[in-house]
């Protein structure tokens, strides 16, 4: 009997160890799903805009590089909030990532104010040279102080002046026109200098404002306007490239710092690759959207070199007003100009 009981005891121990072993193996096999890190990224542009597609590409690259261990859910069309709301949510950690146009970021650092100066960037090559160089690095370091890790800068495009009242041939034609602006003080000063009445309106409300006559015009890129169906409430465009707006994708700094070094590097690499991919798309899309405007019947005025000089001269006083300590930092403005190899005088001569 004693021998029998010992045998039973051994069998029970074996069965117990076998069951526990299988349980452990099953738990281990199921840990893949439990280890998946899920983040959200939100912004206000339409899902088919190049900025949105660049963010989608970023999410795709992150998932690919992490073998599915990091997944980023994308929310466009202001589903979670407007630019300001999603950026503040990312700053507080409500969401991990957010994107906004840079004019709406001037409340976090006045370095962005320099980017808003009219004609500081005159073509895309200058934009990329500044963003990819020391001026961009200054912004990246500065944003950390506000709790953000800059991931990449999607290409938004040059802003054109559009309206539903009349063709705008020269600055004087804007006199008294109510023009929607962002919260950027410089953009507001631009239209003030051009003789218009600058009217800050949240992007999500601009279509209705144009429809109801609250504003009569706005400044924006062809692609954003078309993809947001603004052609339905516009009739005229004037291609003056008065301001370049980049977008910026940021991540909550605490959440970024909590990641392993390998995952941090993975996310930054995905951002760099997405930015290169998105720039090509953005430039192709801008040309396509301009043609769509023409085909739709929007009248586009394209000033010649002499006429462009009038537009530049009209907004030159904006530099004198804003390039000062505490606003558009003079040293930072000089850094941008030095990086681009030009002077203020050359811009406005």
UniProtKB/TrEMBL annotation:
GO terms for cellular component: outer membrane-bounded periplasmic space. It comes from the Bacteria. GO terms for biological process: transmembrane transport. Keywords: Receptor, Signal, Transport. InterPro entries: DctP_fam, TRAP_DctP, TRAP_DctP_sf. Belongs to the bacterial solute-binding protein 7 family. This is Extracytoplasmic solute receptor protein YiaO. The lineage of its organism: Bacteria, Bacillati, Bacillota, Bacilli, Bacillales. The gene is yiaO_1.
């Amino acid at each position: 009997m004693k021998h029998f009981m010992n045998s039973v005891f051994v069998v029970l121990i074996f069965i117990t160890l076998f069951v526990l072993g299988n349980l452990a193996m099953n738990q281990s096999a199921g840990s893949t799903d439990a280890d998946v890190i899920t983040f959200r990224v939100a912004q206000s542009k339409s899902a088919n805009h190049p900025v949105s597609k660049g963010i989608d590409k970023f999410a795709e690259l992150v998932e690919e590089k992490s073998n599915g261990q990091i997944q980023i859910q994308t929310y466009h069309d202001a589903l979670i909030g407007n630019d300001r709301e999603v950026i503040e949510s990312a700053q507080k950690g409500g969401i991990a990532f957010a994107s906004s146009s840079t004019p709406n970021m001037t409340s976090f650092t006045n370095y962005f104010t320099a980017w808003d100066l009219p004609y500081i960037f005159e073509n895309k090559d200058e934009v990329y040279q500044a963003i990819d160089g020391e001026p961009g690095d200054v912004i990246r370091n500065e944003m950390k102080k506000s709790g953000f890790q800059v991931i990449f800068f999607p290409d938004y495009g040059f802003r054109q002046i559009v309206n539903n009242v009349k063709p705008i041939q020269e600055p004087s034609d804007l006199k008294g026109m109510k023009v929607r602006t962002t919260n950027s003080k410089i953009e507001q000063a631009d239209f003030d200098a051009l003789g218009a009445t600058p009217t800050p309106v949240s992007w999500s409300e601009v279509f209705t404002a144009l429809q109801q006559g609250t504003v009569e015009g706005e400044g924006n890129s062809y692609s954003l306007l078309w993809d947001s169906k603004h052609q339905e409430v516009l009739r005229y465009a004037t291609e003056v490239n008065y301001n370049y707006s980049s977008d910026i994708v940021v991540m909550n700094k605490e959440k970024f710092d909590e990641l392993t070094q390998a995952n941090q590097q993975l996310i930054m690499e995905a951002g760099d690759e997405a930015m290169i991919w998105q720039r090509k798309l953005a430039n192709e899309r801008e040309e396509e959207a301009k043609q769509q405007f023409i085909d739709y019947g929007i009248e586009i005025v394209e000033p010649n070199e002499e006429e462009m000089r009038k537009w530049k001269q009209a907004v030159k006083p904006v530099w004198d007003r804003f390039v000062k300590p505490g606003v558009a930092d003079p040293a930072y403005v000089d850094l941008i100009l030095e990086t681009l190899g030009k002077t203020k005088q050359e811009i406005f001569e």
